[in-house]
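In the current project phase, our protein records have gained a structure token line. A sample record follows, to show the layout:
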Amino acid sequence: MAAPAAAPLLRLLLLAVCWLVAAGTAAGAKILPSPSNLNYSFIHICTLNWTWNPPENISSSCNLEYSSDIVINGVPEDRREWSKSRFRVTDAHLNEEMHLRVRSECKNDNTSEPSSWVETPLLPKGIPGTAAVDLSCVWHNLEYMACTWRPGENASSDTNYTLFYWFDGLENPKKCSNSSVDQGIFECIFSLTFPKVTSTYPAITILIRDDSEEIMPVCASKNPTTLVKPATPRQLTLSKTNDRIDVKWSESETFPGSCLHYEVKCFNGDLDIGQIIPSEMNSVSIAGIDANSKYTCKVRAKPKRECYNSDFHSDWSEEKSIGEKRDSAIYVVLIITIPSIVAVSTIILLVYLKRLKILILPPIPDPREILKRMFGEQNEDAQSSAKDDPMNAFDKIIIEEEINSLILTETSESTNPDKENR
């Protein structure tokens, strides 16, 4: 029974010993002195070289290294590096508040603590909101780079931005002189070529600033392999053999061999239902076509991932057509026109036949209508005359009565023979 009671006491003693050992080790740990004279200098337009001096009174047993990090607008970028060298090369953030901080550490040494951070700022110059924004660059056909940007919201309308560029291989930065402005969008184009045998491309450093100190400069670093846009394929030709169409176009003169793949789009009729055919070469064959139809094709290029990590396609080439196809619009016009012509012709024919019938078989006038019109006109004349001359009116009335009695007599005589015949 004594052994189990002693076990907890033994554990407490062991914990106390461990705590004392750890406390003694912590008490003996030293905080290293910090590096001194941290400073920076511009190597090129947007490249900084940070330098510092080693800390003093460092033990020879210390495996001394320097830990450095970048702080932008008070936020660490977590791009920490460890190095025995007393410098670090970084890109400059000229339109933001930038700090580089560094401290000394003894690697694989538990008897010392890292030193405190030492920081040196690089403060922005110019009025906030005047720096160029939305910088975008495209490397066209491995021949020239075109960069566009917009002015800052607080920049004046007469701000004259200038673009400078540099990459490893240039002795000095170059100024882009081929610039233009269109509807508030700035653009500058500069030549950029490398040998075809090049497998790695240097980063392109770009600086946009104005001569005025009020305009805040801005720096950017571009990986050119992500900005590649091939030229539009040219000399597109189509040939047809039986049920097959062969499509060919010229090869690129600037890209290394096998660094482009193509997309060919051929359609018969509607553009939206065209078939896209991939090709690794500068030609493609399309089988199973309708020999009596018209086909239209176009092609575009895109860099291969193993050569350039770019998502840019070239523009579509000019469309080429082969074969003949009856225009459906003609059928629509015929469908509308023919019935209209037939209808108009039918109406004209009916009108013509009616007139012809009247000429051949004129209508027989109704005697009652003739007499009615005749005597009606006479009565009107008699009434008007009676108003003018009462004597003439009386004579005309007598004459009309005699005529009426004569007609009645003739009518009665013509009807009597019919009765007798009966």
Summary: The first strand starts at residue 30 and ends at 31. Residues 1-10, 12-27, 410-422 have pLDDT under 50 and may be disordered. The chain is about 25% helix and 35% strand. Residues 216 and 409 are 127 Å apart (CA to CA).
